[in-house]
Amino acid sequence: MCKGLAALPHTCLERAKEIKIKLGILLQKPDSVGDIVIPYNEKPEKPAKTHKPSLDEALQWRDSLDKLLQNNYGLASFKSFLKSEFSEENLEFWIACEDYKKIKSPAKMAEKAKQIYEEFIQTEAPKEVGLWVNIDHFTKDITMKNLVEPSLSSFDMAQKRIHALMEKDSLPRFVRSEFYQELIK
Predict the structure, then answer these.
(1) How far apart are CA 183 and CA 185, in angstroms?
(2) pTM
(3) pLDDT(166) > 70
(4) Biological process (GO) annotations (predicted)?
């Protein structure tokens, strides 16, 4: 039985969903050894630069999610904090959208759009943003329509909603956390 604070009701559901996915993969009987697929991140996470921000930089993060996200150390600290709360999907979705906007090739754009859709947006996605975050059906529908012909702005509406939610919810929790308080000592 999952126990926790009332502020973290999704934690048990999230853990159960992750376990279900992992068990589903393990329980599949491959026809041959070549059919075994082990999921992995395409790009390993790069370690954050060890350059600790100045006190002034870190203090600016209290009022600006954008300044936090633009700073490698801040981004890494924020991500660690969110992982400690089992709520990193929003940030991962936002980062995936930022990476998507850097793609030049239409073929690679379509491939990345499909990957983001399958990982975060579609029903029963491993990190379904709509499940853990209140992305309304209108935003989800617009995003899905945008993916018929992927463009650099296909995920803009959903990404803006997630950004606003992180700014309103995750950032204030981060600023009150030990992660942040240690930085500004």
Answers:
(1) 6
(2) 0.69
(3) yes
(4) negative regulation of signal transduction
